[in-house]
Design a protein that fits this description.
The protein is α+β, with helices and mostly antiparallel strands and about 70 residues long. It has three helices and three strands, in the order αβββαα. It has a three-stranded antiparallel β-sheet.
Length: about 70
């Protein structure tokens, strides 16, 4: 394993979500930007990306979904 590989493996991330339901990867330990909230425990980049793929099933903002499908 190279030094770069070891550093990448040690990096931790969290999944953040905004009010529109958009998901993103964010560095663990850095302040979460205004309008976003952390929704996962710290994990590897790959684990967070898998969670985003599993949980974020649509690209339309949640406010537009409410107009189309008011539940």
């Amino acid at each position: 394993m190279t030094t770069a590989d070891a550093e990448a493996a040690a990096e931790r991330f969290v999944v953040v979500v905004n009010d529109e339901g958009h998901h993103s990867l964010w560095w663990y330990g850095r302040p979460v930007p205004p309008g976003w909230r952390a929704t996962s425990e710290p994990a590897t980049r790959e684990e967070c990306l898998a969670r985003i793929e599993r949980d974020w099933t649509g690209l339309r903002p949640s406010r537009r979904l409410a107009v189309v499908d008011p539940r």
